[in-house]
UniProtKB/TrEMBL annotation:
<feature type="region of interest" description="Disordered">
    <location>
        <begin position="1"/>
        <end position="63"/>
    </location>
</feature>
<feature type="domain" description="EF-hand">
    <location>
        <begin position="723"/>
        <end position="758"/>
    </location>
</feature>
<feature type="region of interest" description="Disordered">
    <location>
        <begin position="1309"/>
        <end position="1336"/>
    </location>
</feature>
<protein>
    <recommendedName>
        <fullName>EF-hand domain-containing protein</fullName>
    </recommendedName>
</protein>
<feature type="compositionally biased region" description="Basic and acidic residues">
    <location>
        <begin position="440"/>
        <end position="466"/>
    </location>
</feature>
<dbReference type="InterPro" id="IPR029016">
    <property type="entry name" value="GAF-like_dom_sf"/>
</dbReference>
<keyword id="KW-0106">Calcium</keyword>
<dbReference type="GO" id="GO:0005509">
    <property type="term" value="F:calcium ion binding"/>
</dbReference>
<dbReference type="InterPro" id="IPR011992">
    <property type="entry name" value="EF-hand-dom_pair"/>
</dbReference>
<dbReference type="InterPro" id="IPR018247">
    <property type="entry name" value="EF_Hand_1_Ca_BS"/>
</dbReference>
<dbReference type="InterPro" id="IPR002048">
    <property type="entry name" value="EF_hand_dom"/>
</dbReference>
<feature type="compositionally biased region" description="Low complexity">
    <location>
        <begin position="26"/>
        <end position="39"/>
    </location>
</feature>
<feature type="compositionally biased region" description="Basic and acidic residues">
    <location>
        <begin position="497"/>
        <end position="601"/>
    </location>
</feature>
<feature type="region of interest" description="Disordered">
    <location>
        <begin position="385"/>
        <end position="616"/>
    </location>
</feature>
<feature type="compositionally biased region" description="Acidic residues">
    <location>
        <begin position="396"/>
        <end position="413"/>
    </location>
</feature>
């Protein structure tokens, strides 16, 4: 770039101008031209440069050149100005011409400029794209029409206006022609189009502004909602922070995670009862995780974070409900902690009262003590919470004393107080969070002074425990082990040797052992006292086996410490005793028994008392607590002996989860005693009342020496019987290697005949004959029970105390199996057990059982059947009511393998059809057809199979019940197997028999549960009708869990607000770990006792339904809402219903165990109908019995009325209308004088003899009789005090219920016959096709 030097401007001189020195690289003109194009600017900018470079002189040539350049620039500027002016003039002229040519827009075009904003886009499109050409085409069309005068003509054959217009539009397409632009209308349209575009643009601009405003508004609302959400989160976090303190927080400030998981899980159950609009929005944030079982605990912040993940999306109203629910769960947890402290004291009390040391107390004596305490304290104001020990639920429903009237029950306080009010009162009394468990435990200890002094005294003393044998040590552990079914030969020999010493010269009758030593000890009181003294003198030497109990220091429990050296010395002494002669052994054992009995009498209980300790989790203590206590055993038992844990429990606290205690009306174990006492104490017992009750029971419970010896003898008999039963069962399982479930009698007899080289053949023969007399269902096969009976009878026939051991040892050695046979047998027994397990865990469904049966057959065919391809089906025997001419019974196929399901399932096989099935059903023996193609009497359901394809083997095995009656068939075939030789061999047939046996057990288990459900449904329906204050009734059934360690509850039946009870389509499973706040359900099953508890603010009554052994197999959970107690008449009705329901359950279980069925009414001839009406029949029988006990005086009271209450008149009218309906319709019973003539003993006889299920009474119009009873409320009947009136009232309703049942069943049968007749016609057609195929 050229450099420019600036000086002060001065006039140029001629000399200086001539002396300008210019370089070729620097051109002042070029520089100045870039700066300015005017002469003035040139002088100002360029003159100094010339002066600097050229000085003040120059030649004339330079001046001329400068002038020339200047003129050149000036001319260029003038020419550019002239050109610009010319262009502007041309533009102005063009605009003028355009203005002159411009024509105003026509009115027709202006019509498109309407103010309707909604159609702007459409009008803009039409004006721009369509109208310019279309309007001209229409104009041209009209011009032609006018020119040819076609408007006046009807129609011209040579002119079509549509074709003309179409041709015009095609010829003047805007893409290829601009002819339309010449029209003034089109030019106006173009102007309108421009205006419409501007209008559309302005409108779009407004829309964008609106969108922006709307977005801003929504953003503001969103930010406001986020602010509110944040405030709500803070509020909820504060609520959770406050709620956390309601739980019994440990010292380290942590609470178990499982408690909160249970609270969340239970909230889902509570939400099911919300209104429909809240139920939809009450779902938690995400699905619940499995309940923690590892003991994880949460701090305060962890708790808030954990709960927020589930409840952050809950609406405010639902969140408030959730916090109320959490408060209820926390209150339940605090109550459980206090209850657990009481349970520890009650467990210690139990051990003090257990003088005999077998962990059983006399139930009647405990109830008697409760009655005495009640009589003494019922007027005390602090004892108002105690429950009457003569009434349910303290005693059983069939033991309750009905002498207490309704008025007396109504006078009891707090009847109308609800559980919510009690909760509010307790919160007002205790505004601060409850103390920790350790503090409450210490407080309880301070208040129970008497008990504490005894505890401290006994804790300081060292208790003496004799370590006599290994089994005694096992009985002293925290959780006794179950009797093992398999033992080593050495252990079995040791146990047998001890049994010989204990039961020498004893007799076995009906499975029990009579011990002559006990009788001798009972008969010699004087010798007993002297020997007891000697035993006391020897106590100093028995310190070798002492065990130090847990000592309580600062609320912590130390583990039990056992002196190993002392134990070794005790074992040495025990070995010395074993080596002694039998006479010395008997003397030593008897001395030990008497010495220990004396010790137990002197010391009271012989056990230490453990002080209350804060549990890890009060609600999980039944599963996790290990107390670490040992009890003094006051009797010596044989080595290897165990007690029946259903009858005894040697732990101080609750037993294992999987252990269910059987109810015994005469005895209580520790768990049952604790639960019974808690029921007697009520909901919130006063601590002073609780302390006095402990002392009262401890001082009042006493046993005589005879009672102690009786208990010891009974325990010994049970132990020896259990030991022998286990040994015989092991032998049976070893003998029955293939799992058929039966042993051949002749084989067993032939093996027994070799015992002692045939010297005991006569004794074995007499035992067999005796067994046949005692067994009602004897054939040539022995079940496990019959085999056990045979062994015991043989032992009784052969003299000698060692007969049992030697006989079992001989039989065990005689049935040794090879290794391969044992492996095969173990696998098969595992598969058979899976069939039974499927029934126990299937929720009363047969589908899992069918699946397990077919899977077992498939696995065995693959593993032990040479890979056979088998097909199987199961058929059930039914009474043929549709076509009796074809046989009394028929077989209906209920299950089949997939390849045969289309041909076999739901088909019926009649007796007049081909087949060997009915022969097997009638004989009760399996029938094996090795070659079905050669047999000629086989019915083939698959008619498509050709005769040459009908090869293979076929076997049918009868399915038998406990009375050995066939109720169905199991069919197995190999027709689909491609092998030419697919014949079943012996061990396969035996396994198939085991399959049939296992299926029979499973089928009857499921069938029994189904029948129990139907009976319970009837009972629940009656409860709904008679107890309107009952909010909900649910039935649960207990079944083993998948691991076999515990049991679970299945929700099978539930009530609905309006309507009959409903079955759960998919019964949910309730596990103990997931229902800590509903543990009353599991306590009810554990102890087989009625439990009353509060759950989620509602009062619940859990009633167990027991089997024949006294174990709870189901329970009925009755919820009465927020009421604390039902009205007296409703409470009595529920007791009556539950009592009858328990009777029905016992009757059903006895029938499934082989008892005869009771058929009293005419309608009970059919088994299905019998199950449906069993509950009503039991009610009818009870009412018959009550009416039969009424005497003349009871009826005289009714006749003494001059003007009886209307309710009594209506009841008598309904009763008489059942017998004299015509007279009732004629109005004869409207007069009280005439009614009185029928009130006598004859009416009582009619009532007791009436059968409402008889065919002749089914036509009785029940609706007419109900009219008499519609105005009689149930609660008002009992208030009149008339027993005949109450009995007749209930009797009428039961009769009407039975009549309705029978009518419905008759109607269902008729519908079933009509529907099956169509199916039978189709079946006959298929049979004809089959016969044609066979003929071909």
């Amino acid at each position: 770039m050229a450099e420019v030097y600036h000086y002060q401007p001065s006039p140029p001189s001629s000399a200086g101008a001539m002396q300008i020195a210019m370089s070729g690289e620097r051109t002042p003109t070029s520089v100045s031209s870039r700066r300015s194009t005017t002469p003035g600017s040139f002088y100002k900018a360029d003159t100094p440069e010339f002066e600097q470079r050229g000085g003040g002189s120059g030649s004339s040539t330079g001046v001329k050149r400068w002038k020339r350049l200047h003129e050149q620039q000036t001319m260029e500027q003038l020419s550019s100005l002239r050109h610009e002016k010319k262009e502007s003039i041309l533009i102005a002229k063009q605009k003028a011409r355009e203005t002159a040519r411009k024509i105003s827009v026509e009115l027709l075009a202006k019509e498109w400029l309407s103010e309707n904003q909604a159609t702007v886009e459409i009008r803009a499109y039409l004006v721009d794209k369509l109208l310019p050409t279309l309007i001209l085409g229409v104009e041209k069309l009209l011009t032609v029409v006018d020119f040819q005068e076609l408007a006046d003509k009807d129609r011209s054959a040579n002119f079509n206006p549509l074709n003309f217009l179409a041709q015009y539009l095609l010829r003047n397409n805007p893409k290829y022609s601009n002819f339309a632009e010449a029209s003034p209308y089109v030019r106006g349209i173009r102007q309108v189009s421009e205006d419409l575009r501007m209008q559309l643009f302005n409108m779009e601009d407004n829309r964008l502004a609106k969108i922006k405003a709307d977005v801003k508004r929504r953003r503001t609302e969103r930010e406001y909602q986020q602010h509110l959400t944040q405030l709500e989160k803070i509020r909820r976090s504060n609520c959770l922070l406050t709620q956390f303190t309601e739980w019994n927080v440990a010292v380290d400030g942590r609470v178990e995670l499982s408690l909160f998981q249970n609270a969340l899980r239970s909230f889902n159950e509570v939400a099911e009862h919300f209104p429909e609009e809240l139920k939809r929005v009450s779902r938690l944030g995400h699905s619940l995780e499995p309940t923690d079982e590892t003991g994880i605990t949460l701090t305060l912040n962890e708790f808030v974070k954990y709960m927020n993940t589930y409840i952050e999306n809950l609406p405010r109203e639902v969140f408030e409900q959730f916090m109320v629910h959490m408060s209820k769960c926390a209150a339940a947890y605090r109550a459980s902690a206090e209850r657990e402290q009481r349970r520890i004291y009650l467990s210690n009390l139990f051990m003090r009262c257990d003088h005999s040391g077998i962990a059983l107390l006399d139930r009647h004596r405990i109830l008697n003590l409760f009655e005495q305490y009640w009589d003494q304290m019922k007027n005390d104001q602090n004892c108002k919470g105690l429950r009457n020990p003569r009434q349910w639920p303290v005693v059983e429903v069939d033991e309750a004393d009905d002498s207490v009237g309704d008025d007396e029950e109504e006078d009891e306080p707090s009847t109308q107080q609800t559980t919510e009010e009690v909760a509010r009162e307790s919160q007002q009394e205790q505004p601060q969070p409850p103390p920790a468990s350790e503090e409450s435990a210490q407080k309880t200890l301070d208040e129970n002074k008497d008990l504490k002094e005894e505890v401290d005294t006994e804790t300081k003393e060292e208790q003496k425990v004799e370590v006599e044998d290994d089994k005694t040590e096992e009985n002293q552990t925290q959780e006794p082990k179950v009797v093992e079914t398999a033992e080593t030969p050495q252990d079995a020999a040791d146990g047998q040797q001890e049994i010989k010493q204990e039961v020498k010269d004893g007799e076995i009758q009906n499975g029990e052992v009579k011990d002559p030593e006990v009788k001798e000890a009972e008969g010699k009181d004087a010798e007993s006292k002297e020997e007891v003294k000697d035993g006391e003198a020897k106590d100093a030497e028995v310190k070798d086996g002492e065990v130090k109990e847990a000592e309580v220091k600062d609320g912590e429990v130390k583990e039990v410490e056992v002196n190993e050296a002392d134990v070794k010395e005790a074992e040495v002494k025990e070995a010395e005793v074993k080596e002694a002669t039998p006479e010395k052994k008997e003397i030593a054992d008897l001395e030990k028994e008497k010495n220990e009995t004396k010790k137990a009498t002197d010391t009271g209980s012989g056990t230490d008392t453990v002080k209350p300790v804060k549990p890890k989790s009060a609600l999980k203590v039944e599963r996790e607590e290990a107390v670490g206590q040992t009890g003094r055993i006051s009797v010596t038992f044989a080595e290897g002996t165990t007690f029946n844990r259903e009858k005894t429990g040697l732990t101080l606290t609750s037993r294992s989860q999987s252990q269910m205690s059987a109810f015994d009306e005469n005895s209580l174990n520790v768990s049952q005693f604790v639960q019974l006492t808690e029921t007697f104490l009520g909901d919130e017992p006063v601590k002073d009342v609780f302390t006095r009750l402990l002392k009262f029971i401890k001082d009042g419970y006493e046993e005589t020496e005879d009672e102690k010896m009786d208990r010891l003898t009974k325990a010994r008999r049970e132990a020896v019987s259990a030991k022998r039963k286990s040994m015989i069962d092991v032998l049976f399982e070893k003998w029955d290697n293939d799992g058929s479930g039966y042993l051949d009698l002749e084989e067993v007899e032939s093996v027994m005949a070799k015992y002692k080289d045939g010297q005991e053949v006569e004794a074995i023969y007499y035992a067999k004959e005796e067994m046949k007399k005692k067994s009602r269902f004897q054939d040539q096969r022995l079940s496990k029970r019959e085999f056990r009976m045979l062994i015991q009878l043989v032992v009784q026939e052969i003299p000698g105390s060692e007969t049992f051991d030697s006989l079992l040892e001989f039989l065990t050695n005689s049935v040794e199996r090879s290794y391969s046979d044992r492996i095969r047998g173990e696998a098969r027994k595992k598969w058979l057990q899976q069939i039974v397990t499927a029934a126990e865990t299937g929720g009363a469904s047969m589908e899992p059982v069918y699946r397990a049966v077919f899977q077992a057959l498939y696995k065995d065919a693959e593993a032990h059947g040479g890979g056979k391809k088998i097909s199987a089906n199961i058929s059930m025997s039914e009474r043929n009511v549709k076509f009796p001419q074809r046989g009394e019974t028929c077989l209906r196929y209920v299950a089949a393998t997939p390849e045969d399901a289309d041909y076999v399932l739901d088909k019926i096989l009649y007796n007049d059809m081909k087949g060997v099935s009915f022969a097997a059903l009638e004989s009760g023996k399996p029938i094996h057809v090795p070659r079905v193609g050669n047999h000629g009497n086989i019915h083939f359901w698959n008619t498509r199979r050709r005769p040459e394809e009908r090869e293979g083997s076929f076997i049918v095995i009868p399915l038998k019940d406990k009375r050995k009656r066939a109720f169905g068939l199991l069919g197995i075939d190999t027709i689909a197997d491609p092998h030419t030789k697919a014949i079943f061999i012996t061990h396969e047939i035996q396994f198939f028999q085991g399959i049939a046996k296992a299926f029979s057990i499973a089928y009857h288990h499921v069938d029994m549960r189904r029948k129990l459900l139907r009976i319970t449904e009837s009972a629940v329906s009656w409860i709904q009708r008679r107890s309107p204050h009952v909010r909900e009734v649910v039935e649960y059934m207990a079944e083993p869990d998948s691991k076999g360690m515990d049991y679970v509850l299945r929700k099978m039946l539930t009530t609905v607000p309006k309507g009959p009870p409903e079955y759960c389509a998919k019964p949910p499973r309730l596990e103990r770990k997931d229902n800590l706040f509903r543990d009353y359900l599991f306590k009810c099953v554990d102890n087989s006792e009625t439990v009353t508890a509060d759950a989620y603010g509602e009062r619940h009554l859990a009633f167990p339904l027991r089997d024949d052994d006294g174990k709870a197999i189901a329970l009925v959970d009755i919820s009465i809402g927020d009421m604390k107690k039902l009205p007296p008449h409703e409470n009595k009705e529920i007791q009556r219903m539950l009592r009858i329901l328990q009777m029905a359950h016992k009757e059903i279980t006895k029938e499934f165990n082989g008892a005869e069925k009771m058929r009293i009414l005419e309608g009970e001839q059919d088994d299905e109908a019998r199950t449906d009406i069993m509950f009503d029949r039991l009610m009818l029988m009870e009412l018959r019995d009550n009416v039969s006990k009424l005497d003349q005086q009871a009826y005289a009271e009714l006749r003494s009325y001059k003007d009886p209450p209307q309710n009594i008149c209506d009841i008598l009218k309904a009763t008489l209308a059942i017998f004299f309906l015509d007279k009732a319709e004629e109005g004869e019973f409207d007069d009280w004088i005439r009614i009185k003539t029928y009130i006598n003993i004859d009416l009582s006889q009619k009532i007791t003899a009436y059968d409402p299920t008889a065919q002749k009474d089914l036509n009785l119009p029940a609706d007419k009789i109900e009219l008499y009873m519609k105005d009689v409320p149930h609660g008002e009947v009992a208030k009149h005090g008339s027993l005949p009136g109450q009995y007749m009232y209930n009797w009428v309703f039961v009769c009407l219920s039975l009549i309705e049942h029978m009518k419905k069943m008759r109607q269902n049968e008729d519908e079933g016959v009509s529907s099956d007749a169509v199916g039978d016609k189709e079946e006959d057609v298929n049979m004809d096709d089959q016969q044609k195929t066979e003929a071909e």
